[in-house]
């Protein structure tokens, strides 16, 4: 089980209705702004230099969604007033009334949050009740991996992941109970209102194509501070309130940092599914060593996902109580079975069978022991997210490389590496250094061939 949550009814977004995908298609047209691989800085460079208007930016993303989203099935609905909001922002630009750090930035949501100034394009698909990593639901169907149409995108935030990889928005949101999101968000961002799986393990955060955009989104998402509806937000040290994570992206050095390598998080049995992940991790280890990182092997048998999941995973113990409370929230629209037992047995639910001691700055390991599984597989096997979920430590997943190309995957399947840091020390081990442009540029994110005209 895994976690991306739907904040209330999928047809409601901060009180504004969402329309099916086709409702906005007739209003889109070819625009001069190029949304492919667009970043926050890129949008602002064209917007505030007068090269393009906010409406052009939004129209470009909507046109791209119209053209390519049906093939990967990543978006459930679009905001019917996105272009109207863009027009209002253009009027504000003309009067100098621009006050938000995300002004006119197009975003997609799995978790509904209010981003000051951002333009919400729509809502992404997810796995049914966020309980698996295949990203297939009774409402939205199966999401397709844009790099390989025979594979799942992972999940349960696979809709957001596939959409952002395909440049349908600048960034998006998701949530995580074991492996769905892989973002540095726990205790920084309130989880109130999301569909809960585990009070202990749930976290939410952003998904982006580059580190700076991720840091900007995280800064905004964490700016709300303490939320009485989620007391884990009270764990954040007062000194971190108002932290701007983007400032740590520029510069930094890896020289002398010590990274633990969890050898129990690998599957060394050779196969087409596992060998590419191992090869990519070996490559990344060599890159880090050349940059001055000291790699410390960690061989304790405890540190493997099978052992951790079987002995410490608390989802099964916590989901019933959390879901019962969620289903009784007055803010939910429409009707839904309550308690959770009734929902599960209703027939409408799509069920899938089944640092300190080493003086380390961070721990690294493959995000998954194998490639994302094929569509039709019973489960998303081989994932290593349980360690971060159980400890609550900040974790970031970065693109490491691709598997060898095949007929189904012309440029290969993306393979990720996780970087687990110490609590409240994300800037040192996460954003500053390894996630700086210095390292991120070794393997830039490559657009899926299926969405590159």
TrEMBL record:
It comes from the Eukaryota. This is Amidase signature enzyme. Keywords: Signal. It comes from Hyaloscypha bicolor E. The keyword Signal applies. Residues 116-299 form the Amidase domain. Gene3D superfamilies: Amidase signature (AS) domain. The lineage of its organism: Eukaryota, Fungi, Dikarya, Ascomycota, Pezizomycotina. Residues 1-25 form the signal peptide. InterPro entries: Amidase_dom, AS_sf. Pfam families: Amidase.
């Amino acid at each position: 089980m895994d976690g991306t949550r739907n904040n209330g009814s999928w047809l409601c977004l901060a009180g504004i209705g969402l329309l099916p995908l086709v409702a906005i298609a007739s209003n889109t047209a070819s625009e001069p702004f190029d949304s492919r691989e667009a970043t926050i800085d890129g949008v602002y460079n064209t917007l505030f230099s007068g090269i393009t208007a906010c409406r052009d930016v939004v129209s470009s993303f909507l046109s791209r969604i119209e053209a390519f989203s049906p093939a990967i099935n990543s978006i459930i609905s679009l905001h019917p007033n996105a272009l109207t909001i863009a027009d209002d922002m253009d009027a504000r630009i003309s009067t100098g009334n621009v006050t938000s750090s995300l002004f006119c930035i197009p975003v997609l949501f799995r978790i509904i949050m209010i981003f000051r100034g951002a333009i919400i394009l729509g809502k992404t698909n997810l796995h049914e009740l966020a309980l698996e990593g295949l990203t297939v639901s009774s409402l939205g169907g199966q999401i397709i991996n844009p790099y390989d149409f025979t594979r799942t995108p992972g999940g349960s935030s696979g809709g957001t992941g596939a959409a952002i990889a395909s440049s349908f928005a600048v960034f998006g949101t998701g949530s995580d109970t074991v492996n769905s999101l892989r973002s540095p968000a726990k205790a920084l961002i309130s989880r109130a209102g999301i569909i809960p799986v585990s009070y202990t393990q749930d976290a939410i955060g952003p998904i982006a194509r580059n580190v700076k955009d991720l840091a900007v989104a995280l800064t905004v998402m964490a700016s709300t501070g303490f939320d009485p509806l989620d007391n884990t937000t009270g764990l954040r040290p007062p000194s971190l309130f108002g932290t701007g994570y983007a400032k740590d992206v520029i510069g930094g050095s890896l020289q002398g940092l010590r990274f633990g390598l969890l050898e129990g998080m690998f599957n060394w049995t050779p196969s087409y599914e596992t060998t590419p992940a191992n090869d990519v991790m070996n490559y990344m280890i060599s890159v880090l060593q050349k940059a001055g990182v000291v790699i410390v092997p960690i061989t304790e048998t405890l540190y493997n996902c099978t052992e951790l999941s079987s002995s410490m995973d608390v989802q099964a113990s916590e989901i019933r109580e959390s879901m019962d409370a969620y289903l009784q929230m007055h803010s939910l629209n429409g009707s839904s079975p309550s308690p959770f037992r009734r929902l599960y047995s209703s027939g409408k639910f799509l069920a899938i069978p089944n640092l300190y001691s080493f003086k380390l700055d961070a721990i690294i390991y493959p995000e998954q022991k194998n490639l994302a599984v094929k569509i039709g597989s019973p489960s998303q096997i081989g994932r290593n997210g349980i360690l971060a979920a159980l400890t609550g430590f900040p974790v970031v997943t970065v693109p490491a490389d691709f598997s060898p190309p095949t007929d189904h995957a012309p440029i290969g399947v993306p393979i990720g590496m996780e970087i687990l840091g110490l609590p409240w020390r994300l800037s040192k081990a996460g954003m500053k250094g390894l996630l700086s442009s210095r390292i991120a540029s070794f393997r830039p994110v490559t657009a899926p061939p299926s969405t590159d005209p």
